[in-house]
Amino acid sequence: MKLTEHEKKILELVQSNPVILTNRDERRKVAEKIGLTEKTLRNRIADLKKYGVLDQKETDSNLKLNSEEINLFDFFSILWKRKVLFTSIIFITGIFAVTIALLLPVWYKATVVLLPPSESSSSFGAASLLSQYGFGNIFGSNDSQNRILSILKSRNLKEKVVNRFDLQRVYKKETLQETLESLDNHMDVDVGDEGQIAISVWDRDQDKVGIIANYMAECLDSINIALTIADARNNRNFIENRLDEILDSLNVLQDSLVNLMKTNNVLSLEDQVRTGVEQSAILNGQLIQKEIEYDVAKASTHNKDPKLFMLEKEISSIRQKLIETFQQPGPASFFIPKKQIPNLLIKMERIKRKTDYFTQLIAYMGPLYEKSKVEEIRKIPTIQYLDHARRPDKKDKPKRSILVILIVGFVGIISTVGIVMAESKKS
Fold it and tell me: Which H or E run includes 161?
């Protein structure tokens, strides 16, 4: 086959520097000397191999390496060549991994599943009634689930568990804080899709781990009851103080009404006004009648007639009665002055309206007060158990088989890369 001048030059370079067939660094140096890139020189060499002009010789390591990657066949060839070393590494690693897995402490897991209290049961029905009248928040948060989760994260609950089971000695910690942190690592709280709360605990004692989980749930319930009672006590104090204020306001209004009635000689304002109007109408009718009689008698008799004198007396007496009825009644009079009636009506209506308002408040707050007293003294459980924690039948961790596979696999990958790199440098 006839070669071009350029191809002949490349062939001469290969013959004088055969190392460029397998060594990328040397190929790059030679390419730079003749003004080419390493990639161009590599492609020209590949063309010569394609034409059959150039045969690549096997290196001492039986490797066939190019500039960027190792052929899959070459890769397995390297491993097969170093199979004794590779197998020894894997075997020793396996023994080491199994030994570690067997020496690791065994942990058992127990889980207790709970339902948080419903709002209706936790507040004895009072919260729903309060919400109708603008007091919906005085019984605390509506999210019982968040309340339970907060208690489970509290230091108070964890210290109870640590002290009950002497976990500082079990975990071999010097301080209480380190023990609490270790307990955090050995417990987990999970909220299910339906709102159930699962409390999981890990411990090396197979018989004790379920007892710890159940005790944690008991502590949760006792703390929640204490908080509920404290809330109920605060609610009872609030409602009690409010009721005292309402009763004081009612007493003030009643005293004001009594003073107003005494001062203005009021027994029943509506009845007195109605009676006064009726009496005034009667007197006005009599007055008109007597005035007519007087006019008729005056026209038919002389001025000194005794009848005229009697009619004048009667007319004067009726007019005086009218004055005493609505204009200037006496201190002991049953009637109320006409000028005072509008003001009295307004004042008494205001007092009545305020009295009705406070009376309705008592009707609303009274049942709440009684319910808050019951809530304060009751100590029934606030959570429900779906599943109690039981003694586990088998360990939960460590997963020895998975651990061994991971260690052997990781070391195998590292060993393979190391063997291939070592053979590459030799070439």
Answer: helix 155-165
Instruction: Looking at the structure, tell me whether residues 365 and 407 fall in a common domain.
Output: no
Helices (H), 301-399: 306-322, 341-377
How many domains, in total, are found in the chain?
4
Whether residue 406 sits in one domain with residue 337: no
3-class secondary-structure state, position 187: strand
Contacts of 187 (CB under 8 A, 6+ apart): 199, 200, 201, 202, 216
Please give the residue range of the domain that contains residue 34: 1-57
Length of the chain: 427
Q: Would you list the DSSP string of 26-43? A: HHHHHHHHTT--HHHHHH
Peptide bond into 398 cis (omega under 30): yes
| Residue 18 to residue 14: CA distance in whole angstroms | 5
Q: pLDDT 10s per residue in the chain (427 long)?
A: 566 777 777 777 777 777 777 777 777 888 787 878 877 877 877 777 776 666 544 333 333 444 344 456 666 777 777 778 888 888 898 888 888 878 888 889 999 999 887 654 444 444 444 444 444 444 444 467 888 889 999 999 999 999 999 999 998 999 999 999 999 999 999 988 888 899 999 998 999 999 999 999 999 988 988 888 888 888 889 988 999 999 999 999 888 888 888 877 777 777 777 776 677 778 778 888 888 887 887 777 777 777 777 888 888 887 777 776 665 555 555 566 667 777 888 888 898 899 999 899 888 888 888 888 887 777 666 788 889 999 998 888 878 788 888 888 888 888 888 877 776 666 5
Q: Are residues 116 and 230 in the same domain?
A: yes
What CA dihedral angle connects 243, 249, 253 and 259, to 10 degrees?
Answer: 120
CATH code where residue 201 lies: 3.30.1890.10
125 and 191 fall within a common domain: yes
| Residues 56/42, Cβ–Cβ less than 8 Å | no
Q: Identify whether residues 403 and 393 lie together within a single domain.
A: no
Q: What is the CA radius of gyration of the chain?
A: 53
| Burial state string for 29-48 with b = 16 or more CB within 10 A and e = fewer than 16 | ebbeeeebebeebbebbeeb
Give the SS3 label for residue 201: strand
In the numeric block, the tokens 């397998």 are attached to: 22
Q: What is the CATH number of the domain that holds 36?
A: 1.10.10
